Automatic annotation (TrEMBL):
The keyword Signal applies. This is Legume lectin domain-containing protein. Belongs to the leguminous lectin family. The lineage of its organism: Eukaryota, Viridiplantae, Streptophyta, Embryophyta, Tracheophyta. InterPro entries: ConA-like_dom_sf, Legume_lectin_dom, Leguminous_Lectin.
Amino acid sequence: MSSRPSALAFSRLLIIHIVVPLLALARASVPLVLVPETLVGLPGFDDGISLLGDAALVAAGGGGSHVRVTRPSASSSGFLQWPKPFRFADPRSAAPTSFSSEFAFSISPGNADGLALVLFPRDFRVGAEAFGLSGDRRFVGVEYDAWMNEEVGDVNANHVGVDLGNFRSVSVCNASSVGLALSSGEKLKSWVDYDGSSKRLEVRLSKFRDPRPYDPIIAYSIDLLRMWKGEDVYVGISSANGNSSQTISVYSWRFKPRKIPMSMHSLPARPHGYSSEHGKLRKRGNCPLAILGRVIFATGCGALLAFLGLFLWAIVANRHTVFPAECPVRPADFKYEKINVVAGKDVEGGKH
């Protein structure tokens, strides 16, 4: 009877003094890892996009859903990360890497930065700095800025800019020049395209329902292959509201890296014709050289047809020409005979 309580007491002591400390040590040595939410099957979004920081999927009116990047409270930051890295230099292909991205978003009124589409290396971190960007300074960003920061030379509180490693934009466009207000809460849509052959970055912006603009609001020359070479590059959408309660929402986002064949490298980054969202093709402009070529070709064809017409007419006319018949001339033989004429004298009286 006395051995059973002693065994039970010993087991309790074992758990308290050995097992519990081991569990505590194991828990302390392994950091807590939060698995980010991943978007799958959400209309308008590529599958596999991760939501980091305060970014979260929220229900919208009409049964749909969108991503709220920042909460309506101060010091909120969020990030959407595209699932796969890519490289501007691919050893399997000599063609440079290009990419296209389009996304719809809205920025509520408030004194905060807005959001940015960023390309960054592996060691990039999401932080509470401007646009939620921190860590490696080799990022390339397209900012949609709704706050004027004089320290970095912002032109106003309503502009789009290209950032290289810092927030002093190397190329800027006033969004008011195209009739848009970034922080009005209205849905907007943007297209960001990079051509690896021409090394040209183009940014377009319009209202959500409007078609893709033909002319970009920003066209900037940059060699991203030289910047990152064969390094893995990630892409994301980032935002931070600082001391404001400004909220950022993203309603769709698609990103597509692509290889351009070497035979197409001579094509311009912004060709005269492109397919719009509605499948319409913009007409190409008339080139003077093309018009001159058409005129020369038409003139040559006309001259050739005229020559053939004259040639055929000459053949037909020769068939109906009547030539006089040729009569053979044969030599004729003439005989000359000697004729003796005797003239007699008249007899007197007519008598012999």
